[in-house]
Amino acid sequence: MKQLRILFIFTQKFILIKKVKQQKQPNQKSICVQYKYFIRDKQKRTIEQNEKEFMKA
User: Fold this and answer.
1) In 3D, which of 18, 50, 19, 57 has the Cα closest to residue 35?
2) In this structure, what are the phi and psi dihedrals at residue 26, rounded to the nearest 5 degrees?
3) Whole-angstrom Cα distance, residue 23 to residue 53?
4) How many CB atoms lie within 10 A of CB 31?
């Protein structure tokens, strides 16, 4: 549940950055892309972590 909340916060931040990007110059785009990959990696790590915890149980 906590992980979902964290993910939600990150998603909100990403949406915010995207909005800023639309208002500002194109070089904001690289930040957006980096953020997207960061979120995706975080999701992968979270899933892997869950699997490890599950194996321990």
Assistant:
1) 18
2) -60, -25
3) 43
4) 14
User: Full-prediction pTM beyond 0.90?
Assistant: no
State the residue for tokens 């110059």: 25
Instruction: Give the tokens for residue 35.
Output: 């953020």
Residue 10 is which amino acid? F
Domains in the chain: boundaries: 2-56
Residue bearing tokens 């939600």? 8
pLDDT per residue as tens digits for the range 3-56: 777 778 778 877 777 776 666 655 556 666 777 778 788 888 887 888 888 887
CB 17 within 8 A of CB 32: yes
